[in-house]
Specification:
451 residues; alpha/beta; Rossmann fold; 8-stranded mixed beta sheet; 5-stranded parallel beta sheet; 14 helices; 15 strands
């Protein structure tokens, strides 16, 4: 592990002044992008006394922040309201105010294109906005997940094009977000933060900045090392999920219960970490980050076969769900075409309001393509818009006994804890459970089909 060395001297006037402002919490912090990463970060900085300005292209979202109207589950309503009321946190669509900031943190999306290539346009646009207002003595940090090399190969040239020099006139670092939406144990504050600076002075200032609100900051030798760290973390998860999903497919052939096998294996106190199977992988990291790594690897004439295979297996898991639904319907002398399918849960994980890259959207599209009639219920996702995996607009229906009884198949794709699965199974004709949500159901178990 890299040991942080303090390299700023009295001769480094801009760096020393900025570091002192950060330590004294008199620095103004700008956060570009007030989504799942940006707003929690802005709140944490505001809570310790920094003045925070949130920058948003979305006028409605900026207005909601300024009204103290919280829209992120990991942010406490009262904390946002208190910060807004005392003027510690404001949101704006006026990017000229970037000049007021001593520290600027980029927290914008990094999706994939339709061809599964990295889309870094949001990051580049943010860097261009900063470059127009960049002044001596500012720290810029990038938190958006990206491929190794982005900070120095893409962001740095944009910021230096007006003649300011990194490490002397301004400071640049990469520190990947590690947000796990809905996690009550690990939050922005107590999740270790990796940080890599373009120069040793950049690292020292960025380390100081993050240390004000995060318990453990982990310095690494470069932005590229920090970038690869984040991509590796989620690739690790994607590969292990693929492993257990492949085992799920084998267990289906062998007539074994994958949930029993994984639970039993997890009792070993060493040498294994438990991953659970499911209808695919979702969220803003696991389905996307490995593709950033495989894309970058091609530049070095290297093919990440293991990672690419994992992606294929996780996609195959969604098709496996369709086959389980077909077989369940066939056992009741029904076909998938024109069948009424009630989907329970469309968020990418339980008990959150995030549908990004959710495998539920793919499964629903596949079912719709085969002629099934789809409705869904999700207490966290009232509406699905026709983008990001869905081709149609859908509204969550009320989960009534009639809705359950009329469905030819109830398909559990996300196991929200608030649902009464015992009652659902009692009223349903057949239940296909992709999340082991019905593990504690005692009655009518003959109605349950698990992946």
């Amino acid at each position: 592990m890299l040991e942080l060395k303090e390299v700023i001297t009295d001769d480094d006037v801009l760096a020393k002044t900025l570091k002192e402002k950060i330590i004294n919490h008199t620095a103004t912090v700008g956060v570009i992008g007030l989504g799942y990463v940006g707003l929690p970060l802005a709140v944490e900085k505001g809570k310790v006394g920094f003045k925070v300005i949130g920058f948003e292209l979305n006028e409605e979202r900026a207005g909601r922040v300024n009204a103290g109207d919280n829209y992120i589950g990991d942010v406490k309503d009262i904390e946002l309201q208190e910060l807004v009321q005392k003027g510690a946190l404001t949101a704006t669509t006026e990017f000229d105010r970037l000049a007021e900031c001593d520290v600027i943190v980029i927290c914008v999306p990094t999706p994939l294109t339709i061809t599964r290539d990295p889309d870094i346009s949001y990051m580049k646009n943010a860097a261009l906005d900063i470059a127009k207002r960049l002044r001596p003595g500012q720290l810029v940090t990038l938190e958006s997940t990206t491929y190794p090399g982005t900070t120095e190969e893409v962001i740095l040239p944009i910021l230096e094009k007006n003649g300011l020099k990194v490490g002397k006139d301004f400071f640049l670092a990469f520190s990947p977000e590690r947000v796990d939406p809905g996690n009550k144990r690990f939050t922005t504050k107590n999740t270790s933060k990796v940080c890599g600076g373009v120069t040793p002075i950049c690292l020292e200032i960025a380390y100081t900045f993050y240390s004000q609100t995060i318990i453990n900051v982990v310095p690494v030798s470069s932005p590229a090392a920090a970038e690869l760290t984040k991509v590796f973390e989620n690739t690790y998860r994607a590969v292990n999920i693929a492993l257990v999903n492949e085992l799920m497919l084998l267990c289906d052939r062998m007539g074994l219960d994958i949930w029993e096998v994984v639970e039993a294996a997890g009792t070993k106190p060493f040498g294994i970490q438990t991953f659970w199977p499911g209808p695919g992988v979702g969220g803003h990291c696991i389905p996307i980050d490995p593709f950033y790594l495989t894309w970058k690897a091609r530049e070095y004439d290297f093919h990440t076969r293991f990672i690419e295979l994992a992606g294929e297996i996780n996609i195959e898991a969604s098709y496996h769900v369709i086959s389980k639904v077909v077989r369940a319907l066939n056992n009741g002398n029904k076909s998938l075409k024109d069948a009424k399918i009630l989907v329970l849960g469309v968020a990418y994980k339980n008990d959150i309001d995030d549908v990004r890259e959710s495998p539920a959207l793919k499964v629903m599209e596949l079912l719709r393509r085969e002629g099934a009639n789809i409705v869904y219920h999700d207490p966290f996702i009232p509406v699905i818009e026709p983008h990001g995996g869905s081709t149609v607009h859908m509204d969550s229906i009320e989960l009534t006994d009639q809705a359950v009884e009329e469905a030819d198949c109830v398909l559990i794709l996300t196991a929200h804890s608030a649902l009464d699965y015992e009652h659902i199974v009692e009223k349903a004709q057949i239940v296909v459970d992709t999340r082991n949500a019905t593990k504690d159901v005692k009655n009518n178990r003959e109605k349950i089909v698990k992946i």
